[in-house]
Automatic annotation (TrEMBL):
Main location: cytoplasm
Location in or out of the cell: Cytoplasm
The organism of origin for this protein: Anoxybacter fermentans
Cofactor: FAD
Pathway field: Cell wall biogenesis; peptidoglycan biosynthesis
Reactions listed under catalytic activity: UDP-N-acetyl-alpha-D-muramate + NADP(+) = UDP-N-acetyl-3-O-(1-carboxyvinyl)-alpha-D-glucosamine + NADPH + H(+)
GO terms, biological process: cell division; cell wall organization; peptidoglycan biosynthetic process; regulation of cell shape
Alphabetical list of Pfam families matching this protein: FAD_binding_4
Its EC number(s): 1.3.1.98
Lineage of producing organism: Bacteria, Bacillati, Bacillota, Clostridia, Halanaerobiales
Protein name: UDP-N-acetylenolpyruvoylglucosamine reductase
Amino acid sequence: MNSFLLDNLQSYFIGEIRENELLKFHTGFRIGGPARLMLIPKGIEDLRRAIVWAGREKIPYRVIGNGTSVLAHHDGYDGLVIKLVNVLNHIRIEGHRIYAGAGATMTALLRQAINHRLTGLERWWGVPSSIGGWLIRMGMAQAPELDYLIQEVYVMEPDGSITRWIEPSQLFVEDNSNIIKRVIIEVVFQLKPGDSEGTANKITARQVEWEFLTQICLPMAGPVFLTHYKDLTEVFIKTGILSLHKGRAAFLGIGNGYVANLGGTEYDEVLDLLEEIKERVTKLTDLKFRIGLSLLQTKEVIRC
């Protein structure tokens, strides 16, 4: 990175700046080479400074959360990676509405909803992603739940301005390259009242699934597939693809699929494995689904 540019950034960026940071330390797969530059902003204004600076200097940038659905190339990323850590993680409840920062986790959101006897999000119990990451995955899958579970979304545009979207699904109508340049700031959920016992019963199966996954002491990421279908487990059972591996990448057919790194897994092994599963399932069923990972590559990020 040009020392003049870096000095310029350091003059007003408050958060942490890291050069040649290995991406494998920031993804669930534990795969990935160095990012030329990584910024960890202190707050929303710091985030705005980073995005505006990158745009002004024509430096490619991508924003990640906890990296549970990010697959980074072993060559790394020749640009700026902005990582949201302990920022935009607020959760505020007003009546049946929940105002949640994009950096908060789905687990934290579900716990707050359950504590306040609000229902509607139970099937995502155990999903390890941030709320922002979850929303992007849902949008890319064109999930019908978006427009009745979510009241509005606040997004930071590439110029640093913040826009309000009252039809969340419209965020994902445009080309993917525009979507990933935006940063989700806050999501406002409109839930329904429910009873604690009924809500707890709804999440029991998801909790068992998640507890099983957490007992597998391996780097893992997912869910790896996007679909309208709520849970692909039955599909994986019927097609005989509950488990499969390619090289050192192992697939687990639970929920919408997870991939574990058995040690030294390569970027291409993960993609080849998922493409094989997708091909086998589509041959045996009429179900349509997509690979739902953010692919962080040397030149660009692509959402499959």
